[in-house]
Request: fold
Amino acid sequence: MSAKCTFFRNPTVFAVVVLIGVLFACGVKSTERGEPRKPQAATQGGVRDADRDALETETMAPTTEELQRLVEMYPESAHSHYLLGRRLRSDGQVEQAIGVLQRAIQLDPVYFEAYFELAWCYYDLRMRAQQLHVYEQLLKQGSGLPRDVRAMAHMYAGNVLTVLAINGDGAAGNTAIMHFEQSRLLNPSATGPLLGKGRALMALGRWDEAIRVFRSVVEEADGPIARASALEGIANAYWYGKNDKDTAERYLEAARSEVPQREWRIQPFLAPSELGRQDSGQ
Reply:
């Protein structure tokens, strides 16, 4: 039997070779990055189309141990660190993920996916100040980032600051509004920053301004979820700011008519955990 044949019959060696091939197809090979990597077209010795599709849905995702070996083999690869950090967080090892993702950012300071994943780690641990700091550090990269990424970072920073404002930090509320306005400037068609601005205004007790912002979303939104979210915001402003429960209920009914399959309600305004989530869509 030839040496080549013996090499590929060794299960451990063969598994590592396949892993490296798959991950390099996803962009681990280099830290010279632009947009988020997608698996490249299959080439000789590369990844089959079906395998690439599976990788996209993470049904073929490498294990933590495999990714740790990859980091050991390529310690200067920001992408390999990012993949390991994401895997650690998904496995519930959030503290360990933080250090790995910080290393990814050190290796590639404009690796925006690593920043967002790191911010999610701090969200999981309810460490708001650290979560906000990640967005601030990302925004310092300035023009090195795509425009839509800067818009998203401003909006997420605004979300965290709104939570701080609800807990009594008025200065945080004003800063949140500035972030939402910057996000809107960078992405003028996005309604997420307007919804965020409306919530920040409510946190500051500026009810009439909040209602005006939410109404502008109702008028310009091209989708029912954004309109329903704005109608729910108006309802909350009337409920808390004007003590007008009848009007609040009418707006809630309008929101339910827009998207009946969702629950639209008066939010527990003193503990609005959802305001801090990163996934409030644009």
Notes: Confidence is low (pLDDT under 50) at residues 1-59, 270-282.
